[in-house]
Amino acid sequence: MPKLKTIPLALALLAIGASHATFAAVSPEEAAKLKSELTPFGAERAGNADGSIPAWNGGYTTPIAGFTNGGKRPDPFSADKMLYQITARNVDQYADRLSEGVKAMLKKYPDSFRVDVYPSRRTAAAPQWVYDNTAKNAVRAEIRNNIPVNAYGGIPFPIPKSGSEAIWNHLLRWRGEAWHAAVKGVQVTADGRQVVTAIASGDFQMPYYFRDGSPEKFDGQFWSIRLINSGPPMRAGEGIVGRQNLDGDRTQVWTYITGQRRVRKVPNACCDTPTPASAGVSTFDQTDVFDGRIDRFDWKLVGKKEMLIPYNGNKLLATPEAQAIGKHHIDPSAMRWELHRVWVLEATVAPGKRHLASKRRYYLDEDTWIAVLADHWDANGQLWQMGFSNPVVMPDLPATTSPQQFGFYDLISGAWYYDSALNDAPEQYKVMPRYPDTTFTPEALTGESIR
């Protein structure tokens, strides 16, 4: 089995405890690799030695037959045959290619949880202007006091030298400029009961990817969200608006609570604070596996490794919700796992900080920078949660991205959470023209919500 490809010792030492350091951009000579041995996003263009990971040849940009913007997203690889299955009986054979959380799930649910492995397809793609901006970022972007500067419109650090650079690549990954999506959150209790936490209409926007912008004009607000709830009945009419900034102190979130009939600003919209968007089931920084400010942790870039991860998951979108949401986990037959190279990051609580998780490990797909899996340890050092996302092929953007479809398994209590259960939604991810900035304001939230 392939072993972890570690980064040089000097870089590893630099990455530990460097929460207030400044990391410089790479040289023009190193950045030139983005047009030769590396993809435009910084992944290795070549496949692996035995061909089980193919070479990247531009990604998947072929329109999916029958798809119209705003409709259900078909699975372009539905004809692929499964290569093999991993269960509790043969997990040791593949242990080096599985996260700690996946191995724990196989052990906890030996009769139901499994990993169905399919041929690896390197579908990641983006518009040329995003690639061009990524190349510019490589030689101009740097981190100062945990905040990227001089980065805009592309992956900020395609050739990362530190853990903080890598996690910012995830936070600023390409996922489109603006989109609308149905949102549904489902909590499943330890005994298998489903509790719907939210049914909402979601508007999303990334000002960081406004095509006519520039580092000079960019004000740091990189992600905007507005959710208006239509259910469950006790939450109908509630809403939330968020404006996320590179500087976490400038991030702003407001909620509308129908019983109070007023918009209130959320005082601590970050980190391990429960988020109103999930009725408090998940924390702010569990959104999309990881979201929010990074200064609660020290980030270590451990290295790169070949691992089995959820990927090209249109299959899950096409599975009816009643089948997809099982008693203890998503139905394994609805998931597609592939072998890909990932960057491994470890986040430990920084000195003087606090967090419910004492340590976290993230697995970032090298082609897209999506955090596809995560392992969380609690304050007692016990493996506590497994976070996951479901990257989907969207050649219309083009992109392979995770449309707010994520969740986590609580390995101790047995409960789990599935956000954006879009399976039955007629509209799963609609590419939109740019929204007016006023869409993401407390005033707009007041106008949209039910009193």
From TrEMBL:
Leader sequence segment: 1-24
CDD domains: LolA_like
Keyword Signal found: yes
Any Pfam family matching the protein: DUF1329
Record keywords: Signal
Superkingdom assignment: Bacteria
Protein biosynthesis is among the record's keywords: no
Protein's name in the database: DUF1329 domain-containing protein
Species of provenance: Derxia gummosa DSM 723
Biological classification of the source: Bacteria, Pseudomonadati, Pseudomonadota, Betaproteobacteria, Burkholderiales
